[in-house]
Structure formats: structure tokens, C-alpha cells
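Quiz preparation item.
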């Protein structure tokens, strides 16, 4: 069976204007992402990871090149792409289910079917009974789960995640990694995630894209060989450690290059 490329990134470059001229964020990035895969993007700070995510989501435009999702050119934000940010960004005056329904309410008034879907999503992420709770009544991990539900409410084909668990403490982050792996397996969404955590990338991903220092170019494309459904125990395996160390070598090279300048 032929695998569908749900995201096609063709010769994408992005240059930002600056007072002293311009800053190159990305340079000639070419990448195909298969439907149902979980792809993490890692690289040094400032290498264009978030820029690439925003380009895929249609939040900003490219300086050159094209991006296609489901075969159509990305020109602006789309309903078939969900976005999860580093901060949950919940509206404090709306309760959990109202925050989940927000993308629907922006377009039209929510109907009973939307409410049922929101309730089901909250149940899936372990928040049944918390529908009427306000953000200040929820822990950081709970808030991020509400944010994930909000991104899924319109049943998008792709889910884009920008350092979604970076603000959580280490234990909560590990627990939500396990939870999200299970959620991804059950929902079969295509996920593209930016993260600074190599361990998180190896645990969650089927594929890891490593970018160079700015302007970001792809310097490695790593296939993660584990079964899709994973348990924390794999983090202690030799294979897990080898994959993480092979990726980490790119960062060490960047640090060494910086020190010798």
C-alpha cells in the first residue's frame, strides 16, 4: 500500500527583515511527511524550527518555496491543521469545555454535536468531570490537555505542536509524554512537533528531523524503529540511547564550531 505524503515542503526558505539587513531563518528545506506519522523537529536555538512549523500552519508566508497539505497549497491558516503552543493559552474567563469549543465559536455558534465531541475529547484525555473548571483551577498538565482538545475539536488532518510540554515540570512532562503517545496511537493523526528535548523526540516520534544552525537546513533525518505504542521503559534501552546520542552529536558539533569562532 502506497503511503500518502500529507505534507510536502518544497525548497522552502525564510528571511526576516532586520535593522542591519536581513536574517536567514531557513534555507532550501525539502521534506515529505507521511500521513499518520509523528515527526519531531530538533536543532540549535534560533535554527528556524518554530518558523518551519508556522509556515506549515499558514501562520506566516515563505520567502521562497511552497508547502502543500493534503495536496493543496498552504496560503493561510486552515481548519484541517490544529496548533498546540508551548503555553496552553486558555481564556481565563471560559471554563474547560468553553475553551475547547473556542475554534468552533470563532466560525459559528456551537451546536449539540460540537458539545458532545468536546465532552468526548475531554474524557479521552482524562478530564471527565472537569468540563466546568476554569484554567486557574487546573494544573499545568491539565491545561495543556485542554489545549490539545481545542486543537482536535475540528478533527484536523495534521496537528502542529510548538514545544508543547516545555513549561511543565520533569515528572509531569514524562507523564504527559506517555499520555500523548497513547492519544496519538488512538487518533492516528499526523503530528509535527518542535522540541528542545532529544529524549522527548525519540520517545514520541516515528521520525526526527535535525536542523543546522541558522539558516536552518536539514542535516539529519532519523527513523525511530520502535513500535508506535511505547512505555517509559524503552528510554533505558541501548537502542534508545544510541539514537539519542547520534542526534546529540549534531549539537556537540554546533557547540564546538561556536567555541572555535
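Solution:
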Amino acid at each position: 500500500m502506497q503511503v500518502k505524503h500529507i505534507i510536502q515542503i518544497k525548497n522552502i526558505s525564510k528571511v526576516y527583515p532586520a535593522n542591519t539587513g536581513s536574517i536567514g531563518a531557513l534555507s532550501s528545506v525539502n521534506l515529505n511527511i507521511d500521513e499518520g506519522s509523528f515527526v519531531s523537529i530538533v536543532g540549535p536555538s534560533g535554527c528556524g524550527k518554530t518558523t518551519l512549523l508556522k509556515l506549515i500552519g499558514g501562520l506566516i508566508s515563505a520567502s521562497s518555496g511552497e508547502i502543500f497539505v493534503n495536496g493543496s497549497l498552504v496560503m493561510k491558516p486552515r481548519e484541517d491543521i490544529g496548533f498546540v503552543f508551548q503555553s496552553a493559552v486558555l481564556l481565563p474567563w471560559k471554563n474547560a469545555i468553553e475553551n475547547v469549543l473556542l475554534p468552533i465559536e470563532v466560525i459559528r455558534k456551537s451546536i449539540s454535536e460540537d458539545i458532545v465531541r468536546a465532552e468526548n475529547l475531554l474524557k479521552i484525555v482524562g478530564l471527565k468531570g472537569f468540563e466546568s473548571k476554569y484554567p486557574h483551577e487546573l494544573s499545568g498538565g491539565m491545561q495543556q490537555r485542554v489545549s490539545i482538545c481545542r486543537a482536535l475539536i475540528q478533527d484536523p488532518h495534521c496537528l502542529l505542536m510548538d514545544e508543547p510540554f516545555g513549561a511543565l515540570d520533569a515528572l509531569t512532562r514524562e507523564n504527559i509524554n506517555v499520555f500523548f503517545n497513547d492519544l496519538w496511537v488512538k487518533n492516528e493523526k499526523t503530528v509535527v512537533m518542535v522540541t528542545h528535548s532529544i529524549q522527548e523526540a525519540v520517545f514520541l516520534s516515528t521520525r526526527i528531523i535535525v536542523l543546522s544552525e541558522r539558516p536552518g537546513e536539514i542535516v539529519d533525518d532519523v527513523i525511530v524503529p520502535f513500535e508506535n505504542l511505547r512505555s517509559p521503559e524503552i528510554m533505558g534501552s541501548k537502542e534508545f540511547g544510541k539514537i539519542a546520542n547520534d542526534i546529540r552529536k549534531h549539537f556537540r558539533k554546533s557547540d564546538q564550531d561556536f567555541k572555535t569562532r
